[in-house]
């Protein structure tokens, strides 16, 4: 059969892989010899927005399209770069080139992009002019966001109704995987707890005259090749490692809030004048989806101490534990770091 492309590229998070995704993939397999899946939000912790690892999502894809596989599916992880779109675009280009190379494809292979240009979230489809776009018409199915809500509310609302909605909108092998995850994975209970916390958190602000915007402050304290991290005591992100920080009080400046939270969460004994004198830079991080709690803008302060013995620290307030982590180790802690804190570290420490 004559194909239009050697490879088509399908970019998505696939949280979970649903019938709409499957329809796009099958259309692509009718147009290309092979289909390259770039599975986004790789190297992130489990959250109610990203409940499944890349490996788990890859199994969903392979199970759902098993009859069409025959070596025609190539699945690769794709990292987020929330504050550097050029890095993300380069990551896509690099992943596609490596996928073709590992498939022993020719340098002149024809490549296209496949997807549904449905709303503003599809902007990325226009960022690769070198690849013709195969725009697949929208397939009627619930969104992944709606399906995740049913998945986490299965024990709270109409149990059978929620499962029926899931069963009707994902391929049968994916539904079986979701059921196995719900029944057998210890992660499911924590995700449900996080879902309930976020629901209650947002409900508390429901009567506000307009959607609230929260302001927080975070401290990036680097000392002798180590960065100071705390382990979160409560939801959201319970058990994840994070930068010391928190919400700005009504009667304090953002910088003062940063110093207060740093002291409360780590018991760091460095005097305030010394901390202020070690301030190297600061930056605002405001990605609209950086926090599950809602629109949250954080101001991060980078304090730098090039050398010396590491000061004693211990967890306090909202932090279960505090410790100095080698910078190289911290930059590899993506699945264990809260919200966008890996991206903040990368921004200040040079990798992002």
UniProtKB/TrEMBL annotation:
Cited SUPFAM superfamilies: Nucleotidylyl transferase (SSF52374), Nudix (SSF55811)
Keyword Chloroplast: no
Domain of life: Bacteria
EC numbers for this chain: 2.7.7.1, 3.6.1.-
PROSITE patterns assigned: NUDIX, NUDIX_BOX
Cofactors that this protein relies on: Mg(2+)
Gene Ontology molecular function: any one: nicotinamide-nucleotide adenylyltransferase activity
Alphabetized UniProt keyword annotations: Hydrolase, Nucleotidyltransferase, Transferase
Domain named Nudix hydrolase: residues: 212-348
Record InterPro entries: Cyt_trans-like, NUDIX_hydrolase-like_dom_sf, NUDIX_hydrolase_CS, NUDIX_hydrolase_dom, Rossmann-like_a/b/a_fold
Matching NCBIfam families: cyt_tran_rel, PRK05379.1-2, PRK05379.1-5
Name of the protein: Bifunctional nicotinamide-nucleotide adenylyltransferase/Nudix hydroxylase
Organism: Luteimonas salinisoli
